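[Discussion] Sanity-checking designs against the backbone

I'm trying to build intuition for which residues belong where. Below is a structure token string of 331 positions. I'd appreciate it if someone posts a full sequence so I can compare it with mine line by line.
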């Protein structure tokens, strides 16, 4: 990723990663800001500018470090080294929080975040798993910062615990030679190829994601698949059935044997509709008045009858190909 401009908090120069990024992007325009959370010049842009906003890089330090309990693959969601992303998935959950300012923000105070993580893990009585990628895509971020090898190497200095992160990107090669000691859980999100192309704009293709899954399993990582988000487009049964056929045919035996699967149905919102209509006027309409219902705060989810049909279908399709017990949860 080559950003067009960089907005930065001048304090980043006090950190090694801040200095490194300064020299890496020395040829770009650098614009000083007070706070990465509120850049008025960007916040007040038109929705139609969304694509251009996604080409910016924002650098700062993370000031809030609150861990949030979670009860899926991880025990806690941990705010980590980035938020936002350069891709433009039309349903991106971060748009709900950051609106059109869901561009990539990098936080250079990684040593402080790691110290806190190690402390938390060491003092816990039980083996905890920390989700460090819930606010961004760390595989994408890694292409700019090389933070993932740094993170894995440093986290292993803790006495126990595991880290996990999901991705829609396939650039995993820098992770393959690392001594991860089985304490890293990698999860790759998948969707039918046509949904990736039309909806998950700017992410890796299904072919490349499958290849990355096989490589990570071969390198000994715990690897899971996120069928997420399931989108009930017109021909969804055919598309998802083809997706599972491809996974069955193209995933390695090693991957299939150890994998677990999470299934998440799409939620959408009024904010997405508004931004997408103005920034991507030709894109697929994800809002479906027949199948969706409001669930408060301008959000939409699938109606119970459609949702139940979807759950049953996905469950049976997975079980038929990969056997019972592979699905961790459907949400
Ligand atoms: S890859 Fe993830 S973070 Fe990036 S736009 Fe898509 S859903 Fe959002």
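Best answer:
Here's mine. Compare freely.
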């Amino acid at each position: 990723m080559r950003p067009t401009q960089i907005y930065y908090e001048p304090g980043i120069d006090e950190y090694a990663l801040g200095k490194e990024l300064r020299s890496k992007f020395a040829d770009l325009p650098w614009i000083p800001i007070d706070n990465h959370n509120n850049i008025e010049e960007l916040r007040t842009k038109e929705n139609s500018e969304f694509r251009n906003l996604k080409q910016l890089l924002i650098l700062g330090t993370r000031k809030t470090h609150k861990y949030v309990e979670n009860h899926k693959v991880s025990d806690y969601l941990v705010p980590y080294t980035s938020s936002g992303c350069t891709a433009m998935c039309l349903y991106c959950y971060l748009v709900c929080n950051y609106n059109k300012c869901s561009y990539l923000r990098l936080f250079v105070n990684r040593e402080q975040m790691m110290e806190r993580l190690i402390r938390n893990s060491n003092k816990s009585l039980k083996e905890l798993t920390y989700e460090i990628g819930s606010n961004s895509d760390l595989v994408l971020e890694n292409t700019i910062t090389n933070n993932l090898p740094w993170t894995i190497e440093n986290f292993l200095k803790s006495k126990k615990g595991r880290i996990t992160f999901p991705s829609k990107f396939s650039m995993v090669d820098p992770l393959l030679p690392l001594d991860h000691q089985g304490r890293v859980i990698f999860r790759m999100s998948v969707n039918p190829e046509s949904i990736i192309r039309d909806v998950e704009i700017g992410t890796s293709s299904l072919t490349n994601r499958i290849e990355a899954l096989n490589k990570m399993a071969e390198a000994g990582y715990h690897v899971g698949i996120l069928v997420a988000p399931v989108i009930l487009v017109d021909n969804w049964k055919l598309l998802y059935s083809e997706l599972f056929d491809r996974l069955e045919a193209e995933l390695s035996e090693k991957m299939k044997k150890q994998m677990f699967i999470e299934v998440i149905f799409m939620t959408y919102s009024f904010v997405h509709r508004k931004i997408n209509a103005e920034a991507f006027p030709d894109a697929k309409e994800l809002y479906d008045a027949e199948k969706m219902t409001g669930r408060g705060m301008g959000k939409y989810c699938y109606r119970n009858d459609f949702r139940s049909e979807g759950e049953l279908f996905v469950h049976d399709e997975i079980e038929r190909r990969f056997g019972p017990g592979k699905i961790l949860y459907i949400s």
